[in-house]
Amino acid sequence: MAYLEKTDLSTHLYGENIDTITRGDDTLVSAAINAAISEAKGYLSAYDIQTIFATTGTDREELLLTFVKDIAVWHLIVLSNAGTEQQLRQDRYERAVSWLKEVQKGNISPNLPKAVDEEGVDTGDPIVYGSNEKKTQHF
Length: 139
Description:
Layout: H1 15-22, H2 26-43, H3 49-52, H4 62-77, H5 87-105
């Protein structure tokens, strides 16, 4: 069992719609799921992505799972007819990416295991860059 499977997408897109869009080719579903997982991993470098994406069933973090599904469905839906209403899916995709960016910046702390080395030391990027707003003096 994998982190995300075709049957998991049923909360976001009906199975018959998936089959219609992919014309029954499950390799397209797998490709969309793999692309979604890869995209999410890119934002979660401070976390133990091997452990996170090895989890299955109810052990998965629900919000991350929802957003990975949104991304996977977006990758699937772009295969559909040009006349298909895609705005909802695009909005959900953009929301998922926005959430992942906030996690990456450290503004959101999901319930995910942090990346650690062999000694248990946090290997995520602990340095936060930034500065105070520029001040000007007028005499």
